[in-house]
Amino acid sequence: MQDTQIKEMVARTYAGIAEQSREANAASCCGVGGCSTVDYTIFAQDYSAQKGYVQEADLGLGCGIPTEFAQIREGDTVIDLGSGAGNDCFVARAITGPAGKVIGIDMTPAMIDKARMHADTLGFNNVEFRLGDIEALPVAANRADVVISNCVLNLVPNKRQAFAEMFRVLKPGGHFSVSDIVLRGDLPEALRNDAEMYAGCVSGAIQESDYLALLSAVGFADVSVQRARVVDLPDDILSAYLTSDEIAAMRLGGTGIVSVTVYGKKPIDASVCSPSSGCC
């Protein structure tokens, strides 16, 4: 698919998910657009113990808890890429406190509407949600102390451009902590090529080593994996794409789908436009 087709497909999928609860996503195989083999909550982590957690904003679409590792401080400005219904933004807000600011950005109007509704209901006046593309963020340069994201960047077709935009909007000395899905070894082609699995956060993933290398290439320093968790797709999902022999070979061959939380910082002496950052 072309990049525009991928974005349209992802937007349609998540617009449908926005109309469902987390329970509906987890319990029904026939959610958006007919019967689906993808359980969109399969990668999700338990947020219930997190300060600031808003259950209604948690659709179970993440693959980590980036705020746990993001070193957010009181008064920080935090940008959440792919903010969905606002789950990570509300947790980040509880850490930044009233002196801080949280900006959520999402490409799906239905998600923005849902997040804004939650913020209005809760009376949060320092959380803002903006409709926008991660490859062209609607944010000025050098705006954020911290950038977070949860299982979204792997869906972006041009990851290098997305990472360059992260670099652009961070203040010199600022940092990111993003949870995402990466690969170790080659994912079977049948699984990789399926559009539905792409929207379900698998086939859009790239090799872990390539992911880290792209972050360094746009200018980030101290790029490192803060947490890694192997995600085992159940056989009943894999069997829609692979034979039993192919499933066994995949598991024995060291091929893995991994949830990682990755950290990096923008050097304190970085200019607004550094070489290969994509912002010049």
Strand order of the largest sheet: 3-2-1-4-5-7-6
Which structural class do the helices and strands define? alpha/beta
The CATH topology is what? Rossmann fold
In round numbers, the mean pLDDT is 84
Total number of distinct structural domains = 1
Unreliable segments (pLDDT under 50, ≥5 consecutive)?
27-35
CATH homologous superfamily heading = Vaccinia Virus protein VP39
Strand content: 15-25%
Radius of gyration from the CA trace?
18 Å
Notes on the protein architecture:
The chain is of the alpha/beta class. The protein has one domain: Rossmann fold (3-Layer(aba) Sandwich). The chain contains 10 helices and 7 strands. It has helices at 3-18, 22-27, 87-96, 109-122, 159-169, 189-192, 195-199, 208-217, 235-238, 244-252, and strands at 77-81, 101-106, 127-131, 144-150, 170-184, 221-231, 256-265. A 7-stranded mixed β-sheet has the order 3-2-1-4-5-7-6. Helix 5 crosses helix 8 (208-217). The two termini are 28 Å apart.
Describe what is shown at a glance.
The protein is an alpha/beta fold. It has ten helices and seven strands.
Which short descriptors sum up this protein?
Rossmann fold; alpha/beta; seven-stranded mixed sheet; 10 helices
Sequence-ordered SSE layout with sheet pairings:
Layout: H1 3-18, H2 22-27, E1 77-81, H3 87-96, E2 101-106, H4 109-122, E3 127-131, E4 144-150, H5 159-169, E5 170-184, H6 189-192, H7 195-199, H8 208-217, E6 221-231, H9 235-238, H10 244-252, E7 256-265
Parallel strand pairs: 1-2, 1-4, 2-3, 4-5
Antiparallel strand pairs: 5-7, 6-7
